[in-house]
Fold this protein.
Amino acid sequence: MSEDEHARRGIDLDRPNAARVYDYMIGGKLNYAVDRMFADQILGVLPNAQHMALTNRAWLRRAARFAAEQGIRQFLDIGSGMPTVGHVHEVVQAVDPESRVVYVDNEPIAVAHSEIVLEGNDNAAMVQADAEHPDEVLDHPATETLLDFSEPVMVIMAAFIHFVPDSRDPAGLIGAYRDVLAPGSYLALSSGTWQGQGEESQRSVALYEKSGTPLTLRSPDELQALVKGFEILPPGIVFTPEWRPDGPLEDPPEQSGGLALVGRKEQR
């Protein structure tokens, strides 16, 4: 993009962006020098960071496929990040081409490239919005066009809620999305955790603090407290590789550094 295009889209190239750092970690190309420099700093104190990102992405694909196999045909992906191979619409539309997906992110590069990827796909759309303001997401024309909240929807928050500190009421944020969902809807959520981690995790959190994107790691009990109103499905709140794996685990699950759950909205 030109400098004018960067300015028009509000892209800040002076600070690393979490979505672009994540993209670099999983081998993407939609990132800048400032993001790669920060990611390399993270890898310097947390060598397993790339593995963490990849295992989270693999969990996301399994969770989306699980919901599609349960008959869910509507998906709202909060903090979707950069478009990559195996994006949610590819997974669920392989089950049913009529499945509808709305992606949400406030990172301009993620939005611009997602719009390109989704061009010609009438059942998927990208919404540029701050997901911490649910009305911006839920009242967006693309959301209203594609999603019918009187029918079940899967809301996805993959590696998103750990960027929402307790001071910004993550339970209330999740509850705002929960309240518009029909019974039988699903929530797929993953988060960084302290559980099973060493001092290197603390050092990586300190780096995120300096970057202006604080990271709040949480325990299983803390995550459970955030998702009231959802029945947590088996196998419960587990490390991302342990959530319904496709085969035997190759590495100790705690190396993923992340916990995951899928919950179903309880009947009224």
